[in-house]
Amino acid sequence: MHFQWYPGHMTKAKRMMQENIKLIDLVIELVDARIPISSRNPDIDELGKNKARLVLLNKADLAEDKWNDAWAEYFKAKGYSVVKVNSKKGGGIKSIQGVIREACKEKIERDRKRGILNRPVRAMVVGIPNVGKSTFINALAGKACAKTGNKPGVTKGKQWIRLNKQVELLDTPGILWPKFEDQAVGLRLAFIGSMKDEILNTEELAAELIKFLGTYYPDVLPEKYAVEPDEDPYVVLHQIAKNRNCVVRGNELNTEKAAMLLLDDFRNGRLGRLTLEYPEGVC
Ligand code: G4P
């Protein structure tokens, strides 16, 4: 899915966040484990200040686990609670309710001192488009969860999903924009398929991915497509087209088809678990 942001969308998204954030105790922020910084919203810390914070490294199944652990440490050192999650298959989901309680324990203690004993903690899920917010909410809530609010005769209000007696989740996630004006960020978002491919055409994007893989994961392309490494990414793309029989009329190689194949294989984890940015050097 591609998402096009205009200033109007951004203002509206921010306004909705500002309204909803008043109602909650905890912000559950989803980032893509392959690009945990590039998939964050630039304003999230400002929007979420004074709230308990939980960062989920989602799609952890697509990223290298040693880097997932390094990123978890990185966010923990900044004071966030962190969980590695595979929302699609349910990995990490079981621990979430406990982590939410733990992240909100100061608030629960404050309530207790004031004699408020049974108020559930309220949370909302936020993140950029395609990061996995709906998949995560479904995985966490399951089918058995009762929705609260919007009872007959009651003014239409927010819908809350009651996870248990102690935790409620706002059923609509907050959608926020990424830092796409930064070229390097835009490129990484395009690699994972969260940005319209129009910043670069498909072949240019594939060439950039080939360059990245040549530097950080030099064995991946030779193993997957039986290609020889080459300084020129377009030479490698030609080899992929040849070895995968991407041809048009006659016997002409179709490098655009090869580029799509490569990007698709990468995005779906068929090149293995790959991380595109690393905590060192990230401020
Ligand atoms: P959003 O609400 O934040 O916009 O994201 P959404 O849940 O729609 O998820 C976007 C895509 O990411 C979906 O794939 C979803 O299956 C996939 N996804 C979400 N979480 C994970 C995860 O932890 N691991 C992996 N591997 N994929 C995840 P899709 O291509 O749109 O649909 P489909 O492939 O599920 O049919």
Automatic annotation (TrEMBL):
Domain of life: Bacteria
Domain CP-type G: 10-178
Swiss-Prot/TrEMBL keywords: Cytoplasm, GTP-binding, Nucleotide-binding
Membrane-spanning residues: none
Keyword Nucleotide-binding appears in the UniProt entry: yes
Function: Required for a late step of 50S ribosomal subunit assembly. Has GTPase activity.
Name used for this protein in its record: Ribosome biogenesis GTPase A
Organism of provenance: Dorea hominis
Encoding gene (name): ylqF
